[in-house]
Structure formats: structure tokens, C-alpha cells
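Continuing the series of single-chain predictions for the mutant panel. This is the parent chain; the variants come on the following pages.
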Amino acid sequence: MIVAFCLYKYFPFGGLQRDFLRIANTVAARGHKVRVYVQSWSGEKPEALEIIQVPVTSRTNHGRNTQYYEWVQVHLQQHPVDRVVGFNKMPGLDVYYAADVCYAEKVEREKGFFYRLTGRYRHYMSFERATFQQGAKTELLMLTDKQIADFRRHYHTEPERFHILPPGIYPDRRYSNQPAGARLTAREKNGIAQDDYLVLQVGSDFKRKGVDRSIRAVASLPEEIRQRTCLMVVGQDKPGRFAQLAEQLSVADQVSFFSGRNDVAELMAAADLLIHPAYQEAAGIVLLEAVAAGLPVLVTSVCGYAYYIADGQCGAVIQEPFEQSQLNVRLLEGLQNEEVRKTWAEAARYYADTQDLYSLPEKAADIITGKGHG
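Parent structure:
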């Protein structure tokens, strides 16, 4: 088969991008030809994929997305394929991988009347409607039940079009694949004392991932613990306003920012807790990467994959409506009480050993190539 993959932007450290690459490589490894359309690509280009960069010139995101879609449609007419797989919502897809929340639900909850008059709103609504409306042919690869409920409420999508995927953690994230002494080695490498606390946050889009909440939680710690705590924030974003907040709260020395890094597995081995108090998160693959690494997690209940943290008792889930004080209490408990932290870590390792947290790319490839339909 020839399979076209449509993704607006590829960069190595996004959760959606990592899922895309694993699925594309899995499809290619099965002997199919994979063509990828992108607006931009950062990082290495795998030899197994034919990557086509689509020229876009608009100054707005929705303008560039429209140009991209129209260009790809013309190219597909001239160079037909057997399947079109989208990692962003757009008309005409055979399969859509839903790593995002329902836009109609988000607008209903968060936006006012005037937002609905904008070109941005019209664009995103029309592309989402084309993907999920009744009668559309698109098969829908979903990560959580909550996503399905939201889309069905707004679009009355036929239930048989939805396919829930298991998570897809890279095997190298698993605690049993870490070399002996990984914690000690990673701490030495990053200049973190053995008796200091390392709190890790991983994810691009700092605002949506709640980095401000993490900084406030660190600032709330009693001085003796705060002085020994390091918050490392890893992700592709501009840290400016968050670094400013850390300065204002007198924790600038405790908080450090890094653009995407290739040694996240090492940092997870070195860390005491993963913190992820997101405002919005369809799934949150990093939560399960932490579980696989045996690292306890503090997370907000809005995250689709928070279910796994609660189910495995691998940390603490902060319920909605969010209260900063609840996160503060849980962070203090997780750092101060070694017994609690140890119990969470043991539960995480057990969960990593007994649950399917790994087979997303294979299951997605089955559906894309026709083995898993229906």
C-alpha cells in the first residue's frame, strides 16, 4: 500500500510527533510506502519515509493550515494513495489520530460570543466537523473514553468509527531497561546532590501544561525542603514569563528550563517525582513514560491518562476544580514522606510490568492498513 500521513509540524520532542513517528515507522516496516506531508520538519529525517514539505505563506496558523490542506489535496489527486492518515483534523481523511481534545467542547467551556465570529474559530470548527460529523468515512483512533464522549455529544458520531488505542511507551523508558546505578549517574551528570529532591516536568506548551502551577507549588514548600528541591522543566517553549514568575516567588535558583532533550529517560531515573498539573491534556503520554520508569506522578484529573495514575496508585491525582493548595500539599507529602514516595514508585513499577502500556503503534498500524477495522 501507499499511505499518506498528514501532520502540520514535526519536531522531535512533542508527544503527538513521537506517536506519529512510531506509527509511520511501524507501517513502513510492514512493507508499505509511507509519504509524509508537513509544513515544517525539525530533526533527523528517517530514510523509510518520503517527506514532502508543503509551501505555506499565510501569517496565521489557520491560514497556513488551509493552504496546506488545499496543496495536499491537489498533490494527492496527481499522486494517489491507498490511505490518508491525519494527525491534525482536516476533511477527507481515511483515518484520524486524535491526540487533541474536542475543539467544540473547549470553545463551549472557555470562549465567549465574539470568539465565535473569528476566522480562526470558523476554520477549526469546519475541519473538526468534517472529521467527526455523522456520515463521514473517517476511522477515529482515540486515546481516552472522555474524548469519545465529548465528540459524540457535539457531532453524534457513529460509535463504531471510534477505536480506543492502548498507550505507546517507548520500551527504553522502562525502569528495567535502565543501567545499574542510573539514578546516581544521571544526578552526577546534571549536578544534583544525592540528598536533594528532583522534581521533573516534561512537555512543550508550558502554559497549557501548568508550569506556573508547578513553580507555585515549589515556592510553597517549607524553606528547608525548598532549598533542597530542583524543578527541571523540559520542553520546547519560551520560558520567559515562567522564569519571571520563579524570580517573583524567590525560587529562581530552584527552577531550570531546558528545550527538548534526548536524555529524558535518564532524568526520569534521577527524579523523585514527575509533576504535570496541566490545564488541558487529551492524554499525556509523559505520565505513562514516568510510570514505566517507576517514577511517581502528580497530575491534574483533566489529563486523559490521569486515569492510569489513579488506577495503578502510582502518585496523586488533583481533582477539578483545581486548587493550588491541593497540589502544594501533595508535592510536600511526596517529597517529605519517603515511605509514600516509595509506595508510589513500587506501584508504578508493578503497573509497568502488568499492563499494556506499549502497543499503540502496532494497533494503530493494524487499523491504518485494514487489519483492525470494525
